[in-house]
């Protein structure tokens, strides 16, 4: 729902990693992996928090629960590490340069 139904330009690429729901279904802690720099991640999180009620309403319609949990979003990786992880993933996608034959020692 976050990537496909929210049209907020602040929200970049987001992936949900974990959802921890309290036993009484009153609260749900949603962990997200946010792409981009620390500022972009903060903007994405602000955009998602702004759409919290919309997302809760959509969950209520789709899941038909007795109690729809209050959503609390938090980054799975701190912003400083997230930016570094994003850079590392880009390097991995591009592929490593091929090295010459290494002699076996």
How does this structure look, described?
It contains 4 helices and 3 strands, in the order αββααβα. The chain starts with a helix and ends in an 11-residue tail after the last helix. It has a single domain (2-94), classed as GMP Synthetase, Chain A, domain 3 (2-Layer Sandwich), CATH 3.30.300.20. A hairpin with a 5-residue loop joins strand 1 (14-21) and strand 2 (27-34). The protein is α+β, with helices and mostly antiparallel strands. It has a 3-stranded mixed β-sheet with strand order 1-2-3. Helix 2 (38-50) packs across helix 4 (79-94). It is elongated and about 50 Å long. The longest helix has 16 residues, at 79-94. 43% of the residues lie in helices and 21% in strands. The model has no long low-confidence stretch (mean pLDDT 83).
Query: What is the residue-mean pLDDT, rounded to a whole number?
Result: 83
Query: Roughly how many Å is the radius of gyration?
Result: 18 Å
Unreliable stretches, pLDDT < 50, 5 or more residues?
none
User: What is the percentage of strand-forming residues?
Assistant: 15-25%
* Total count of helical runs of at least 4 residues: 4
Distance between the termini: 52 Å
Give the number of DSSP strands.
Answer: 3
- Please state the second-level CATH architecture: 2-Layer Sandwich
Largest sheet geometry: 3 strands, mixed
> Structural class, from secondary structure content?
alpha+beta
Helix content: 40-55%
CATH class: Alpha Beta
Shape: elongated
Q: Per CATH, what is the topology?
A: GMP Synthetase, Chain A, domain 3
Oligomer: single chain
Q: Which H/E pattern describes the elements?
A: HEEHHEH
Query: For the largest beta sheet, what order do the strands appear in spatially?
Result: 1-2-3
* Fourth CATH level, the homologous superfamily: K homology (KH) domain
Count of individual domains: 1
